[in-house]
Amino acid sequence: QAEIDSPDTPPVTMASAVISKAVRNRVAVLTMRGTAGTLPWGTPVAEHRLNPELVAALGGALEEAAGDPGVEAVIVTAEGKFWSNGLDLKWVDANPTDAGRHVEAVNELMKTILTFPVPTIAAFQGHWCAAGGMLGLCFDYRVMNSEKGFFFVPGVDLGLVYSQFQIELMKAKLPQSMHRKVIIFNSQRWLAADLLQEGVVDKTAPERGLLAEAEGLAQALRAKG
Question: CB burial class (10 A; 0-12, 13-18, 19+) of residue 8?
Fold first, then answer.
């Protein structure tokens, strides 16, 4: 079950779920690629759900950026309708014995971003939901598409119990005024304007100018020395 529905599309190979990297003016831009097709277990590529392949690819790209002395800030964005639609529940259903290990890997990816050695920015061109919403909260700064895209965390509606780490992450990164609506009841789908008012995102921009806005912020965050 998807947090936001996306249309059925033909199967594709795992190579479609990749991260591209570009470095401009000492800022690394990592992009979760793919807008068509489905993965072998049935998840649409376009949802950028957190399965082992995407988690490993993003983690590897971040590790590479962290080890590059020419990188002084990192932006993570994506292609298409979704920034990330959360944990890959179809992969979890197909691999129940590995589910616990995978959730730990997702949490480790979040911790990597939380403790990253240079400033991090999430540029949300589309929806960031569920575990994808939690992942987005891990970044130092957030820039969101002002024209489309939602944030929400629907675990309570799916009968899921958040880990202590996930609860503390949301409590730390969301204002107290949002805790009841987001963590306990999932009673609102939050638009960019809502999140800007609450201080959850730092900037908004039309989709065409989103990456430029994120890159401008990254330049301001670069080392001063």
Answer: exposed
DSSP annotation string for 80-126? SSEEE--B-HHHHHH-GGGHHHHHHHHHHHHHHHHT-SS-EEEEESS
Asked if residues 55 and 26 have their Cβ atoms less than 8 Å apart, the reply is no
Rama region for 199: left / alpha / beta (φ>0; ψ in -120 to 50; rest): left
Q: What is the CA radius of gyration of the chain?
A: 16
Tell me, what amino acid is at 142? Answer: R
φ, ψ of residue 64 to 5 degrees: the values are -65, -40
Q: How far apart are alpha carbons 82 and 91 in whole angstroms? A: 18
> Per residue of the chain (225 residues), what is the pLDDT tens digit?
344 544 443 333 343 348 999 999 999 999 999 888 999 999 999 999 999 999 999 999 999 999 999 999 999 999 999 999 999 999 999 999 999 999 999 999 999 999 999 999 999 999 999 999 999 999 999 999 999 999 999 999 999 889 999 999 999 999 999 999 999 999 999 999 999 999 999 999 999 999 999 999 999 999 886
